[in-house]
Amino acid sequence: MPTSATGTSSNRLRRRAAAHRASGFTLLEVLVVVIIIGIITSMAVVSTRVLGGDHEMDREARRLQAVLGQAREDAMLEGRDVGLRIDALGYDFLRYDGRNERWEMVTEDPLLRERLFPDGMSAGLWLESRRVQLPERSPPSEDTPALPQILVLASGDVVPFEVRLERAGTEEIRAIAGHADGKIEIVANDENARR
């Protein structure tokens, strides 16, 4: 075995250097793998949204449809008009008090409680095919009483409307339409595009 001027074998140094180099990954190799995993994950998330749709928006549309249907049944059973007050962030229900001739917030019914839309979701309201400018959410007062935009009459009739749920940053839309005969339905996306 040849010996160097310092008295050590150069073969042993070479083996030790080779073993040291092969013992792990460089920082660059780790970063490349992390970037590749990030790209694949983001593509999977985007394709899930595109292919699977927005399930949270579907759930909110079904919830609003169901709650409005229940409000209609309550209005017919109690013989009192019910109103829906909606803004971009959420909605709540009002009942008409015939003795005091004013709308009052529904607070005792957990089904008709105030609800907020999930983050990133907002609503728009159309009455008679015209977009309604929705007010900012504020508690009612003597000066500005709570007034509903959508009426569910005690007879079961509904003032025709369309509520469109939208997700910020996407073109996803879910529309809930109410018809004069009291029918409340979720309108398909392709029907929204034609309107």
In short:
By secondary structure, this protein is α+β, with helices and mostly antiparallel strands. 35% of the residues lie in helices and 25% in strands.
Structural class: alpha+beta
Shape: elongated
Helical stretch tally: 4
Sheet-strand content, in percent, reads 25-35%
Q: What is the terminal-to-terminal distance?
A: 88 Å
In total, the number of strands is 10
Walkthrough of the structure:
This protein is an alpha+beta fold. The protein has two domains: 10-52; 55-194, minor pseudopilin epsh domain (minor pseudopilin epsh fold). It is built from four helices and ten strands. The protein has helices at 10-21, 27-52, 55-78, 189-194, and strands at residues 82-86, 90-97, 102-105, 115-116, 121-127, 130-132, 150-152, 161-167, 173-178, 184-187. Strands 1, 2, 3, 4 and 7 form a five-stranded antiparallel beta sheet that branches. A five-stranded antiparallel beta sheet has the order 6-5-8-9-10. The longest helix has 26 residues, at 27-52. The chain is elongated, with a radius of gyration of 31 Å. The mean pLDDT is 83.
What's the layout of helices and strands?
Layout: H1 10-21, H2 27-52, H3 55-78, E1 82-86, E2 90-97, E3 102-105, E4 115-116, E5 121-127, E6 130-132, E7 150-152, E8 161-167, E9 173-178, E10 184-187, H4 189-194
Antiparallel strand pairs: 1-2, 1-7, 2-3, 2-4, 5-6, 5-8, 8-9, 9-10
Descriptive keywords:
35% helix, five-stranded antiparallel sheet, single chain, minor pseudopilin epsh fold, 4 helices, 195 residues, alpha+beta
